[in-house]
Amino acid sequence: MDLVIRQQLSVAQNHQDIHALKNTYELIKSANQGKSALDSSESFSSDLYVLCAEHALQLGHPEISSDCLQMYFKGRHPVNQFMGRAYLCQGQLYTPLSTDNLEEFEKFVMYFMKALDFGIHDPRYYFLIYNASVLYWQIVRPYLKPGFRYLLIPSLSQIVTALTQAEEQDKQWQAELMIELLECFLDASKLKEAVDFSSTAAAFIKNNVPDKYQHIFSLMVHHKLMDTSQIEEDIQSSISLSVIYKIQTIKSQMDTNEFPREATTSLNAVFELLKQYDEDSSISVLDEKIPLLLELAHLSLKLNCVQLAFDCIRDLKRAGIKEPGKLIEIECLECEYEVQKLDTKIATYTKGVVETQLKMIRRLEQALQRAVRLGDPNVIQVVCATQWNLCLPLLQHNLHQHVRKPLISVADVLEKIDSLLILLRCQVHMEIARIEEDEDRIEAAMEHFQKAISLDNNGQYQEHLKMAFHRLHLCTMLYKSPERLEDQAIMMIEQAKKGKQKDSVRKKRSLLVNAGLALAPDAFQIVLDCENEAKVSSGKSRSQISYLCAKAQHHTKSVEKADGHLKRLGHGNDKERIRLWASLAKVARKQGVWDVCRAACRFCLLYDDTQMRKLPKSKKLQKKKASTIVMDDNRGGSLQMESSLPNKSFSFERDLLRTLAEIRFINAEATIHLLRLEGVQLNDHAVPPEDTSQHPSGYISKLPEHDPEWIAYSIWVDQLSQYAMENFLRAAEMGEELNEAWIVHNAVVYVLNHNKHLIASGRQREIVESLQSLLSAIKNTGHSGNTVVLVMLCNALARGLILCWIPKSDLKTDEKKKIDAATDKSKRASIRGLEKTNIVQPLSVDPNGLPDIKAALEVCEFALNLTNGNIPNELVPIAVRQQIIATWVKAKQLLQQQIGHKLGTDDENDEGQNPITKILVALEMYSCNGLSLMDFIVPSLSQLVKMTLECNWSDPLVELQTLTRLTHFAYVSDDHEIVMTCSQRTLQLDDAMFYDTDVKKHEMHDYTARQETLSIAACIQGRSIMENLAGKKHLRLAASKAFVQSARYAGETGNCALVMLAARHFWNACLPFIGSPLDREQLKEPTETILKNIIKAESKIKQETENMLQLHQWPAKDFQSSGSSEGHFLPGTEEDLTLRTSLYGLLFHMYADKSDWETGLKVLDEAIQVLPRTKHRLLIFKHMVIVKARLGRNFMMDIQKFKDESEDYLSHMWHRLAPISKDIVGQLTCYQNAIEALQKQESEWQKVDYLMEFAEWLYCNQFPLNDAIKHLDWAVETLLHMKLAPGPLEEEEKTIKQEITSPAKLKVDFGINVMIPQIVNEDLRNIRQLEALFRAHTLMAVISGHSSPYHQQHCLMAYAYIIHIWQVSLSTAGTVIKALPKSSPSTASQNAQSVTPKKDKGKNDAKQNPQTTTPKKDKAQKDAKQVQSSVVKEKPKRKGPVEALPASVEEWASYDCPDEVRDAFKQEASCYVINRDNILVPIQISISFIFLADFILHQRRCVCKT
């Protein structure tokens, strides 16, 4: 029987024959039951039970194995090795397949421990101990996961002890189990046991298995299981141990989420140690160096030491490694390095960056395939971990479909090798499930969620995964409606998610509203209706303000209904409902259903107000341990910096709190959206609406500020702003509680962005408390690697603290001018080294503001010290640093603290941003000086210019602005040389940037600011040239070119103010050239450029700059604070439209000079198109009408533009058109229209002139004489009936009347019997009137001709008016002379004598300074001779008074008007004497008419001498 059974077992073992196994089992079972035909009960050996059980277990029949073992243990069996083997086989029957069934695990351990106990007592059975250890290690693999190793400690400790007692020869295996036992102690946090055991294990391994000593040494260092003194000797004697010690020390710091101090320095020191291996290139050394290099490279990439990682990879590739596993691992490092060196670009998600990441992911897919073929689980896990790290940034909703295939490959491979990276596998399946869900592959998503649930042994994701799985399960229920309201809400939210973009808002909204009603049937609809205008009453007075008040009251009353919701509902499933409300709010926000979003947020945040306010105490303690404090060396401030790889385990409660923080952000945004619907920005106040309603007569409008309804509405709007800010701040508080830096960072970004209008307008004071809270939170949690946002926050806070305390000057304008002049004068003084400007007594700052200013200074210094370059990763762009520098300098000035010669830097180091910081600080000091506050001691401009030109600038825009500011300060200081140096350098930089192919104009973020800065620099250069002309005409042209360039730059940015500023200066510079056609020609191209850039500036869509933060939000002596009207401009150019019109007029005249009327007309057409419809266009229309008249075109439509102008202007236009019209009919029409346009009495003088000119034109163009005479009669009639204003003195008029001989009594002998009839009424005394009548009658005499019977009469009338002019003028002159005081006997002699003292004085002066007085002496002598000659010349003696009129022709022939009369004519401004005010026509015309009248009278044989 024994032989038969053994033969069957041999067949089963050798051929894996299950049939033979079963036959053997039947034989053994039959024999055991006594059914065998053999008589002997001991027909076979008892060891066959054990052998059969072992073979059955191997062939997968545990039931046969179990039955055989039961028969073995029930019978009598000898004490031999099979007893131990039976225990081992029985233990294997209880192999634990998972960590869920601990009962089986305990049975397994029990039987294995029995086997150990059996084998330990007899050296013959020591082999059982070894076999048991091997089987044990294979079976307990599921318990090697983190969190379950503590279960292995009792049994594994016994195994290790047993192996030690048995003096196992396989020391390698024993060492491995010791190391695993140590890791079990560490996983169970039994540090004391670990310390005790580690010392024993380390000694054993060091003596017996030195190859494993590095492993246990690294564990001991990493977990600090021994003192440094104990291993100091090992570290000094071994390079590898020294490297391991440094690496594990850094890792130990990282495990506590503590950012390693000086990590880069430590890692570089490790790399230098590894270089010592280069001296020995043996294979053993390389085998020792390569793993260390690999570990160093991985750690460098973790800590973002990209350059060091590159060096490690380079050395690894040079090492000549041929092992496939190591080569694959090096390739993983290369891929991770390629992505890591993108640095901050990864967060931009640009196309090029994403493509680079995807390229590396595809490369790792191929590496994973090679690793699978290699079959090394460790290499496979390295590739999978690297692939996961590269896929993480691409798990965005719009990108994660690209990483679906790589992640599925990772999950499948790790599952195939049954990897112990359980957490990684769980997270991979979770992400794959989300991707599948977004792609509507619900079943696949559920499958991955199930796998994730099975892998989540620690249970940290259990609630989250089960809720997600349940949600997807509900989505698969097509024809069944769930009973729970929460499940109904889930289904409706999921349906809303799947809605298409083309679906109407009403359809989307209905699903979301129904979901909200399912979650809160008692209050959701009421809260939702808070914004339903249909349910708002029209108010008491039915006015718009009354309606707004009613809307505010309705909103407040409705939202209060949500407060009692939780009390009515209870707290059964709060976590689920928080998730559901959050999902509802997120979906509503994404689909733009804002009212549902706001309502859902309110209900969701009820849970935050009641239950989620406090974290467990352990969480807070964990938060304190999770960060390191980097102390500020100078100020003692602190800033916590988060680790790049947080080690916190996932917590569902923390995740809920994180979700509530997100809802806080969404709620704040939704509230801001509601504010914008009301027409209000965040933290702005409501603006009263315009009252467009009609009111009855006698209605008295009430100011909104005193209207209770408006006050109620305004308070409601302010409360909405406060509510939004509270949500932002509460989110930051949650981030601080969670120690989640990104939440605090997002809160800061939200607050800064939505309050940008406040910050730009200098209203930071209104949000100072909020900014202080945010700064405190960001100091506690860290700034999430975004130092720029931290600096912007500090700048906003500091400015909010100081702006309200900056004293405002109460000086009057004249005093300010004096102070500015004194300041400029002091600045012009060239002082070497340092200059100090103290002109006026500094104003004092309000003492109440000193605490705020000191706090602002501390905030500024905190930001400046953080970004001073000591920590390379904390550097910020110099443009951002410039803002905080400006605030810091202003705070220093307000506190009257001088800045030392180091200019804000702590050392003399001229590397990095230090030189730039010094320059910017000095410029800010210049900007602050001269403002009636404390003046800084500033370095000289020449020194600053030298520093600027030698500095290596990282930001081209800041460099341009700095040079332009230096140009401005040099211009103010009247330093023309520095102005030209800096401005030329600025323009050269522009040329360099223009030709740089890497810089594209439209891609530059600061393009607008750069062009504006260049415009200002060019303008200052031109102004400086203008002020230093020194009579050089070519410099004026150079200045005009600079102004044109300034306009070109400003036109590119659409800055109309700068373009017009340059245009004004251009106009003033070119004004001397405008008068000459030759000079005008060279201004043609510049003028066209100016006009084109004005149009370009207007046509560009100017970007909104009102919310851009200015460098100075306080008065400053800088070009940013200078107004656009700076400078002195000539009359007519102050107004932009006037200037533009003048420029178009100038350009037109340039074409008119060449008689290019067609092109000139095009210029005028362009002007009409671009200029607004104002009166400024009249000049353009005037030129246009004239040009069209010259060209013979119809201008009637254009002249209609003058219909609303005054009649004299319209008449003037018609008169201008008359002589240039092409045909007679056009000229006739123009003259007629010019005369007909004049209808008012004050236009009669103009009408008379036009009538006489028209009559002359009719006569010259062969029209009938009667037509010409009629118009002259019309002019005479108008003159005679003209109503003139009375003289100033009536008494004087009466005297003049009495002394003037009446023209009716005047009789003059002409040699023939002809007497002048009564031709003039005695009231005609106005010289202008008489002179016009004289000209009219002269023309009538000429036109009528000798044949006319009225010819002689017209001639005599003209003569009579001339005589009457003399009568009136001389009579008035006599009166004036009598009224003058009596003078000395001889005015001429006095004048002659008055020259002599001057001459003598000139001699005396010449003696003192002969070189300077010689020209004056010659001039004085010449003047004296002229006076003496005038005295010597004698005039004929007069008869009678000076105002006497000659009585005969002979007297007229020798009459010379006395000097006294001439002086009286000059002094008297009345209408009764001959002067320029009374004879308006040119003197040549008047004289020609007199000669014409004289000629006609001679023809009539009359005598006329005048």
Please, could you describe this protein's structure?
This protein is mainly alpha-helical and 1506 residues long. Helix content is 65%, strand content 1%. The strands form two sheets. The protein has a two-stranded antiparallel sheet. Strands 3-4 form a two-stranded antiparallel ribbon. A hairpin with a 6-residue loop joins strand 1 and strand 2. Helix 9 runs antiparallel to helix 10, helix 10 packs antiparallel against helix 11 (213-222) and helix 33 (708-738) runs antiparallel to helix 34 (741-754).
List the helices and strands and how they pair.
Layout: H1 2-15, H2 18-32, H3 47-58, H4 62-74, H5 81-93, H6 102-120, H7 126-139, H8 153-165, H9 171-187, H10 191-208, H11 213-222, H12 228-237, H13 239-255, H14 263-274, H15 283-302, H16 306-318, H17 324-340, H18 351-374, H19 377-391, H20 404-416, H21 422-438, H22 442-455, H23 462-475, H24 485-497, H25 505-519, H26 524-528, H27 544-559, H28 565-569, H29 574-590, H30 594-610, H31 617-625, E1 628-631, E2 638-641, H32 652-677, H33 708-738, H34 741-754, H35 756-760, H36 768-781, H37 787-802, H38 813-828, E3 834-836, H39 850-866, H40 878-894, H41 914-928, E4 937-939, H42 941-950, H43 956-972, H44 976-994, H45 1007-1027, H46 1033-1053, H47 1056-1074, H48 1077-1081, H49 1084-1099, H50 1136-1153, H51 1157-1170, H52 1178-1191, H53 1196-1199, H54 1207-1217, H55 1224-1236, H56 1244-1260, H57 1265-1280, H58 1290-1299, H59 1327-1344, H60 1351-1379, H61 1387-1408, H62 1410-1432, H63 1449-1453, H64 1459-1467, H65 1483-1499
